[in-house]
Amino acid sequence: MIQDLWLIGIGTGSPGHVTGEGMQALRDAATILVPQKGAGKDDLAELRHRIIAASGTAARVVLFDYPVRDPGLPYVARVAAWHDQIAERWQAALGSADAPGPVALMVWGDPSLYDSTMRIAARLPVTPKIRVVPGITAIQALTAAHAIPVNTVNGPVQITTGRRLRDHGWPTGAETVVVMLDGECSFRKLDPEDISIWWGAFLGMAEQVLCHGPLADAADRIDAIRRAARAEHGWIMDTYLLRKM
Questions:
Q1: How do strand 31-36 and strand 195-201 relate by DSSP bridges?
Q2: pLDDT value at position 142?
Q3: Distance of alpha carbon 42 from alpha carbon 35, whole angstroms
Q4: Given a cut of 80, is residue 46 above it in pLDDT?
Q5: Which pLDDT does position 228 carry in this prediction?
Q6: Quick count: other Cβ atoms within 10 Å of Cβ 223?
Q7: Which sign does the torsion angle of CA 220, 224, 226, 227 carry?
Q8: Rounded to whole angstroms, how far apart are CA atoms 180 and 113?
Q9: Distance of CA 157 to the CA centre of its chain
């Protein structure tokens, strides 16, 4: 059983994104769980191992295989079943005995933003005591890479997903929209008039790619860059900011 679970935000690809508190937490942990996400995503596991090495921790490192979502289930049921399987694999990787000392999980970005690790932890047989160490979010990495502010002066910002942008369009009352978890270039569903976009993928990594401009001009370029990058690496994580001008 996991008694103490530490969720450590590790940013979006640069080992420099990990805070001093995060590095200390890795050093203080007894066990570090590291997911293996399958062929084509070895660089994600490699980054985690580089951070572990840089921390100088003496913690035991335990690997577990990430399950694949069942495409035959409706979206909500698919995610719920996937979360159940992840929790089961944490437990299986650690064994039936109580884990000695804190167990750490390195979370891409920040554990509080569009990440389900805390919800997965609630599925464990006994809910552990959770400590969260914040990390750099994809939003921070994106706006830093483009050297832009997230918001206009006194302007509202909506953070949403590609699925919601496709299904519901531009959020009512929002001047700036940040879109995460979009695998389908959902900005193409919008009327591009008077909208600008700042897009980035592999943020913080050596493979980082950026594009920005009026949506009407940039949409095709982003789509082409995204397809090429995904074909090259076998995976892609991207985020973008839209703003009505």
A1: unpaired
A2: 98
A3: 10
A4: yes
A5: 97
A6: 15
A7: positive
A8: 10
A9: 19
pLDDT tens digits for range 149-195: 999 999 999 999 999 999 999 999 999 999 999 999 999 999 999 99
For residue 177, what are the β-bridge partners?
158, 242
Residue 241 to residue 212: CA distance in whole angstroms: 9
Name the pTM for this structure: 0.91
Handedness of CA 83, 84, 89, 95 (dihedral sign): positive
Whether the Cβ atoms of residue 106 and residue 88 lie closer than 8 Å to each other:
no
Which residues is 239 bridged to in the sheet?
A: 200
What is the amino acid identity at position 87?
A
Q: Tokens at residue 149, please?
A: 């502010």
Greatest alpha-carbon pair distance for the chain in Å reads 59
- Give strand pairing partners of 161: 180
Q: Could you tell me how many residues make up the chain?
A: 245
Say if CB 93 and CB 34 are below 8 A apart: no
Residues 101 and 88: their CA atoms lie apart, in Å, by 19
DSSP H helical ranges for the chain:
20-28, 42-55, 75-94, 117-121, 138-146, 162-168, 215-233
Looking at per-residue confidence, does 99 or 195 come out higher? 195
Q: What is the pLDDT of residue 36?
A: 85
